[in-house]
Amino acid sequence: MTNSESTTAWRVLDQRWDGRSTFTVEEAGCEILGLSKCSAYAAANSGELPAIRVGRRWIVPRHALERMLSG
After folding, report:
1. What per-residue string of b and e applies to 22-54 under the rule 16 or more CB within 10 Å gives b?
2. Are 29 and 41 in contact (CB under 8 A)?
3. Starting from the edge strand earliest in sequence, which strands make up the sheet with 22-24, in order?
4. Do 40 and 50 touch, CB atoms closer than 8 A?
5. Partner of 1 for a Cys bridge, out of 5, 23, 35, 61, CB 3.0 to 4.6 A?
6. Mapped to the 3 state alphabet, what secondary structure does 22-44 carry?
């Protein structure tokens, strides 16, 4: 892949998310996927949205979200 190809290659996530390794369920579900808040948490709880529960928080790893979106 040449430099011009790599800069125009399709991105899984918009560049505004660069530098982030994890997302909240609201960021991943609502802002990235366009779900409602209720649907985003339901998807995380059911395993449809790749999320890890840490205490009371749900964290969505970037690599899992990108894998889900690219497949």
Report:
1. bbbbebbbbebbebeeeebbebbeeeebbbeee
2. yes
3. 22-24, 57-61, 52-54
4. no
5. 5
6. EEEHHHHHHHHCCCCHHHHHHHH
Q: What distance in Å separates the CA atoms of residue 4 and residue 22, rounded to the nearest whole number? A: 29
CB of 49 within 8 A of CB of 55? no
- N-term to C-term CA, the chain: 21
Rounded to the nearest integer, the mean pLDDT of the chain is: 87
pLDDT tens digit sequence for 8-36: 455 788 899 999 999 999 999 999 999 99
Query: What are the tokens at 51?
Result: 């999320």
Output phi, psi for 6, to 5 deg.
-70, -30
pTM of the predicted structure, to 2 decimals = 0.79
